[in-house]
Specification:
Blueprint (H helix, E strand, L loop, with lengths): L5 E4 L6 H20 L3 H6 L3 E10 L4 E8 L4 H14 L7 H4 L4 E10 L5 E3 L1
Helix pairs in contact: 1-3
């Protein structure tokens, strides 16, 4: 049995086929994140950044979510994972990605701001 072909991309990916998919993914995460900003973080004034990697299968389903660098606040780390799960499933891979990628790993920094917004960098 052949192993799945994996591709790893970050915020600075320049290859158009991945950059467009990742930008669409980012916009969706930010929209869902702002709609589901953690209430505890709002009331306690907690803010911070964390880095996570999300592995997405070609059909848009999430294979895994890993917090690579914690924000130092469990409530934010858990909220980030919850937001990704709420945003799933994502778009199916377009043909130009499916040609050589079965699973796409997206690594991004998510920031929960003082203004009670979540942004992805």
């Amino acid at each position: 049995q052949e192993r799945p072909k994996r591709k790893f991309v970050g915020a600075r990916t320049t290859e158009y086929r991945f950059a467009r998919y990742v930008d669409d993914w980012r916009r969706r995460i930010e929209r869902i994140g702002n709609l589901n900003y953690p209430e505890e973080a709002k009331t306690r004034g907690i803010h911070g950044s964390l880095q996570l990697t999300v592995a997405i299968k070609a059909d848009g389903e999430v294979e895994s979510i890993q917090v690579n660098r914690s924000s130092g606040h469990k409530v934010l780390d858990q909220a980030a994972v919850r937001i990704v799960r709420l945003a799933a499933p994502f778009e199916r891979f377009p043909a130009n990605i499916r040609v050589d990628t079965d699973i796409l790993h997206i690594t991004r920094t998510l920031t929960f701001t003082r203004a009670d917004q979540m942004v992805s960098e």
